[in-house]
Amino acid sequence: MLILLTNDDGIYAPGLAALQRELSALGEVTVVAPAVEQSGVGHSITYLTPLTVKEIFLPGGRKGDGPWGWAVEGSPADCVKLGIHQFCPRKPDLVVSGINGGLNAGINVLYSGTVAAAIEGAFFGVTSLAVSLEYDEHAPFDRAAALARRIIEQILTQKNPGPQLYNMNIPTAALNGSAEVRTVPMNVARYEDRFEKRSDPWGRDYYWLIGGPPDNVAGHETDLSVLAKGKVALTPLDYNLTRQAALEEMQRWKFSLEMDH
User: Fold this and answer.
1) pTM of the entire predicted model
2) What does the pLDDT look like over 79-122, one tens digit per residue?
3) Domain ranges of the chain
4) What is the C-alpha to C-alpha distance for residues 182 and 261, in angstroms, rounded to an integer?
């Protein structure tokens, strides 16, 4: 199996290296990741400027081993495009994005560069997963990567034929004992965002975005609710944003475009 691995935390992120080591047990891994952190860039792509790429070699690597990966001066979506078109020896069987340092759950899925990279892989008709770990300054990425690899193996053996898109979020509590995976929808409630107004040393105002996740709807489990219980949240995603019920209604509408004289 050929796996394309990327992230939005950058080529030198520990979560990327940890996942590369684990995924190597499943097949050949091609690493193409942003040269610098690209958190929160969503599904942006680069088309007005060139994409610079640099080969990355592991310290102490043997001569002739070739690069460990490629660092791209672009977004996570750029990395997947380039990886599939330029650096993978053939179309990959799997695209994995992560491990992100910080959860990508709830409405934050729409802002996430990690999830966007997986969506880009799905554009190409490849089964793709985004993997994120609850933020911790000393995050146990090795344990999270081992857990993610076991879950990915089981996804691949149980999913329906054809490409699928998934978002996996791992709370740190799931790494401290027996982990449980729950398949749940994403929470689409708006986060309780607000801006804190501050002043810099020169007296100029600036604003810092703060806030937290929304409250859960009683009796309705989502990615946020199961994460709060210390369980792994696994959500199938789709990039088709069409609201089908509204489309069917609108197709019965009549429009008159005659101009008044």
Assistant:
1) 0.92
2) 999 999 999 999 999 999 999 999 999 999 999 999 999 999 99
3) 2-189+215-250
4) 62
